[in-house]
Here is the input.
Amino acid sequence: MNHRTTARVVGSLFIVATLAGLAAAVVEQPILAPPDDYLPWMSRNADRVITGAFLELIMATAVVAIPVAAYPVLRCFSERLALGYVIARAVEGMILLAATTGLLTMLTVGQQFAAANPADAPHIQTLGDVVMAARDWAGHTVLSTVAFPMAALILNTALYRARLVPRWLAGWGLLGAILYWSAGIGVLVEVVEPFRPSQIVLVLPLAVQEMALAAWLIAKGFDLDRRHPQTDPVSPR
Here is the structure.
């Protein structure tokens, strides 16, 4: 692919990942929201759970594909940053796959809960709570404090230094990544509650920036003409 096509592919993958993640949340939230009876809900809504898992897999695939598509351009500026971006998003994809596996595991636990006798139900409920906690820790804490903000920092650092997009757009991404990181740390120390306004305010800037970046890449591509040849070793192919 030439750089123009690469930019369009990367921008499209950002949009696919975001839309799939939002759709998965919409599908899953009514099932996972009840604090005490989510297992019976899951057993009665297996189709929704499977649909949500499928959407999560689409998101994970797009997340991993983004750095693979961007690598040929980023490595012209810095091979270390390009490789770091691939690794960070690969870790993010693995965490997303683990969360999806947890969701499908909870479906199985929910079906066992629905068929269990009253004596066994508390033990199955405990198992479901453990799986739910593992999924929540992976998605709300590990992902938010390690993989996703790190990937955003690496990508926007490369874009900012190489001037592949306007610096205000890359700088927006750097600030958004820091705010997103603070949200993950806040959840970890129980200062910020997931899915509450305090978290949304911190994660929204990066989410909006990714969509703005995607739109820019699709419409404008990488700004190769804005580079300084003396300092930016990226060369068009």
In short: The chain has one domain: 3-226.
